[in-house]
Structures are given as structure tokens and as C-alpha cells.
Amino acid sequence: MINNSAKYSKLIKDEAFRLGFMQCGIAKAEFLEEEAPRLEKWLNNNHHGQMGYMENHFDKRLDPRLLVEGAKSVISLSLNYYPDQQQSDPNAPKISKYAYGFDYHTVIKDKLFQLLNFISENIGEVNGRAFVDSAPVLDRAWAKKAGIGWIGKNSNLISKKSGSFFFLAELIIDLELEYDNAFETDHCGTCTKCIDACPTEAILSPFVIDAKKCISYLTIELREEIPTNFNDKMDNWMFGCDVCQDVCPWNRFSVPHSEPMFQPNENLLSMKREDWMDITEDVFKDIFKNSAVKRTKFKGLTRNIDFLKKTS
Question: Confidence class of residue 205 from pLDDT cuts 50, 70 and 90?
């Protein structure tokens, strides 16, 4: 007799790869016992800053069965976003690589819905939900449980095959599948390049980030003025930050993505420093029409640019 769990798992993974996902792993939907005390401690220490949503739905963050009734499996997926080109002016304010192209939320959600439809059409009626960085799901914990990689000292998930320049997403479904072995080995070893390179010393210790000091938080999440104690520490970043990934030795295995929607806007890459310093709202709307950078709005991006202007 054919093991349906194994057959269905292979079917799902094959379709995930066909849709362009880089890795696909499956874990049993259960309470994240190891994560509970870590998350509680991180919140109690106020390392989340103004990200109040991190305090919401604490139980749901730790138990996917509270998000999808009867959940049996968490399918973790990764999608490469590493670009083959970067901003041409080395003195221009910098944008994190993940935001070069079309907003990843839209791109990945579309792929996840296609995968959900495929499961329903080829396996039968399956209840499930798709998650992309927008609901109480601990992406990295599930990706680790699904065997995709380990959590590095910079708190990013790292894959031996491809480094860390990828997005994570999940399907939580009520179908029992064949589960992958969790990634138990930490391949960071004694390396501390990410900790040493962080311009604002946001990595307090291995695996512990104080978001309030993180440049990504300061340029995206923070709603008020950037504190003056970060003068000369922003490393010319105006949206996000890639420093801890750029220095990671495992990212020597990063290869350019093949997702057409992530192709960067040519104007974005060719803009000179002076163009950014004088950016208008019309230019902002044109360049970032379908970009994740829209999240900061014109006001937020110009606040960041003005901060860099004052401290350069």
C-alpha cells in the first residue's frame, strides 16, 4: 500500500519548486515549546520597541493549530531575492536588496494561493491558510523545524545551500504529511562577523537582537524621528539594512534570483546621491509604485534621507 503522506508531500514539494520556491520543508503542526520562553523574554526586555503587534496573539504565534482549525502540517517555503545588480552610485543612500523589485508580499501570496489550489485539486478538500510575514507566525522557527536551515547569530535563517537572502512563507493545512527532520546543527561556529559589523550594535549577543537599535527598525518600523544618538551610525541606509547578511560567509553561496517580479526598477538603481536628496513625491510614487518601500510612505523615506543628510 502506498504511503499517502509521503506521496502527497512529494507532490506538494514538486509543485512548490515548479512555482519557483527555492526550498520547501514540512513540519508537524504543534506547540513551539522551545520558542515560548525566548519570545516571552525578548518581549519582557522590550527588544521589540514600537512593534506592539509582536505582543499580540502570543499563543497563536506559538501554536499553528490556533490559526487553522485541525492543523496537521506547516509547509515552510523559501524564495530567493538576491539581485544580480545593485545601486550604481556607491554614495547614494542605500535600500535593502529585498525591496528592489515588486512587493514580495504580493508575489509570494500569489504563489501560495496557487499551491493551495493545487493541493485541493490534486489531493482533495484541504483546509489551510497562507502566511507571508503578515500574521502571528514564527517563520524562522518553522523553517528550522522543516529542515530548511538554522538560525544564525544575526537571527536570520541561514541555508547551507544558499545563504540567507531569501523570503520565508508558510502554508498551514489540516492534512497529515511526511515531516522533515529539524535542522539541529548550528553552522555559525565561532564566527562573529555579523555581530562585529553591525553599525549600531543591535546584535546584543548571539541570536538576541534589540530591534530598537536595528537600522531596519529605525528606517521602517519607527514612526517618530530617529534618535540623535544614531548620528553617524546609519551607514547610509535609507530603507532596511543588509550589513549582517553582506558580511555572512554563508552568503558566498547566494546566486541571483530568477523571479521576474523581483527585477529592480532601473531608475531606482541608477539614481545618484543628489537625486535621492532632492526626491519629489511624484518620483517616489513612480519608482515605488508596487514596492515594499511604500510602507514608509514618502514622508517616512524623506525623514530617513534628511537624517542621513544631517549626519553626512
Answer: very high
pTM tops 0.90: yes
Q: What angle do CA 206, 78, 127 make, to 5 degrees?
A: 115
**Any known ligand binding at 273?**
no
24 is in an annotated binding site: no
Going from N- to C-terminal start, the domains of the chain cover 1-312
Q: Please give the full DSSP string across 197-249, using - where no structure is assigned.
A: H-TT--EEETTEE-GGG-HHIIIII--SPPPGGGTT-STTEEE---HHHHT-G
235 is annotated as an active-site residue: no
pLDDT at 1: 35
**Is 241 flagged in the annotation as binding?**
yes
* 242 appears as a binding residue in the annotation: yes
pLDDT in tens, 82-93: 999 999 999 999
**Length in residues, the chain:** 312
How far does CA 78 lie from the centroid of its chain? 9
Residue 144 pLDDT more than 90? yes
Task: Give Cβ neighbours of residue 44 (< 8 Å, ≥ 6 apart).
Answer: none
